[in-house]
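Retro notes
What went well: the complex prediction finally ran end to end.
Inputs used:
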Amino acid sequence: MLYDKHKAEIDAILAKYPSKRSALLPMLYIAQDEYGRLDRDSIGEVAEILDLPPTDVYEVAGFYTLFYNEEVGKIVLDVCDDVPCCFCGAEELVADLENRLGVKAGHTTNDKLFTLRRVKCIAACDQAPVLQANLEFHNKVTPDKVDTLLAELRSEIESGKPISISGRFAEH
Amino acid sequence: MPKTELKEYIVLRNREIPNIRDLDVYVANGGYETARNALTTMTPQAIVDEVKKSGLRGRGGAGFPCGVKWGFVPKELNPKYLVVNADESEPGTFNNHEIIDLNPHQMIEGVVISAFAIGANTAYIYIRGEFAYGARLLEQVINEARERGFVGKNVFGSGFDIDIHVHRGAGAYICGEETALLESLEGKIGQPRLKPPFPAVAGLYAKPTVVNNVETLTNVPRIIAKGADWFRSFGTEKSPGTKAVSISGHVKNPGNYEIPLGITMREFIYDWAGGMRSDVPLKFIIPGGASSTWLTTEHLDTPLTWDDMAAAGTMLGSGAVVILDESVSVVKAALKIDEFFKHESCGKCTPCREGTHFLVKVWERIDEGHGRSGDIELLADVGTQMLGKCFCPLGDSAVSAVNSAIKFFRPEIEAEIAGGTH
């Protein structure tokens, strides 16, 4: 299924490497976008395409933070709360988002639109407080900008345009 | 205005030439001409020699001489690989981010010249998964360069083939360590390999491999175009050239600055980055990313070079200066830094996996007002058990914050323990 639907993209990925296994990370991104998360079935499918033991694929899917084993929202909001961001408004931003979304960091809203996470450094420290929405940067998100940002993201979801939680393509 | 002005940009040329990321603009400013000259008129050895002569040191953190690293690659073993380390993840560092987004062709030109120099026909750019935009941009930039014959088969009619592929990581700081990066590129979890063998001999797919940082490679076209002597007119004898340094935290103008190596920390903070953002005074400096030992106001006259920073007990690292003012709790800062290393420990070596866990536990209880007498000694002891006992430097890095906090701010930690609710 996955292979048939994304044949051109998958073949292009496989052609980049002398070893099939090197295609594992990019393949997991495709599977994650297709199925919304990496569950038993999607991991099995990737393992089959790459001729790998499913256990090896599980291990990799569990190691990296951008692979989601649990269900996530349409948009994953990753707020950097590392040093120096935590001293430059990140804590206030997390609190604000938790209030407006009605969930604690690490959880998904009831309407399944947003997952809010605290993440480690995303290499944009001069832009604090900073977050990524499906891996697109939003800089200097001071509390006065949160409403507008959430409204924009909601209208993006409603527009029905393809969404990539893995950041494989631009959403707008 | 900085008292020590930069004569011209070497790396962040996007600051001088608007839209240099567009291929036409890059080419109009001499882009890819250096690669053409190098590949059609120079021998690979001549390029390696010029880079050696320039004294270019790796910009990713260790500061190892780039030309010397290239020289370790055995000539008779093939295929060889060039891998670009674009896994920029050290807290405080964001200069590769700017190069990739705004001056990507210069990096690609650096890849072409460097691959030719070491005899690699394939290059992989390992870019952190969070740089999703950067990864898409690089794909596009490489395609544009390929269409003009700057990348691909028989580039510039030289007979040399170079394929460049973008490979996205998926969120793991440890993959910035070169052997973990290679494991990840091979489709495995990012756990460092035991060295030796070094990647130069047995790297990607057990073949000779050079791993170079984004900024390092971005320097290469300018060194080859203008010569080692020109490059050495910037910086100091042992730290030649410039460095794109990221500054963040409580300064007036956070951002990236390309500085001539050798200016002092004081000049950098006050003349370049505008000084403190408010009247709250400077408390401490994390000078080379979260892994580095902290500096305080007494170290402001330390020159920004690899050797001077080492002499001051810390490191230049990846060029990431974090400025924190008196509003910051030392315990909170150390806790956040060690939380980072706990989260990013790959779990392979016990001292790092368990040690980071214990450090966080102790910092956390002090921060929450439940610190115990003897906790400072406990932290120091855990640190001692971690230092130098792991495959890679991640565990050691977690100890930097512990030892810095205790060395410079012991009374504050003691007061926090004593004043806690227990």
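What we learned: The first strand of chain A starts at residue 75 and ends at 80.
What to try next: split runs per interface for comparison.
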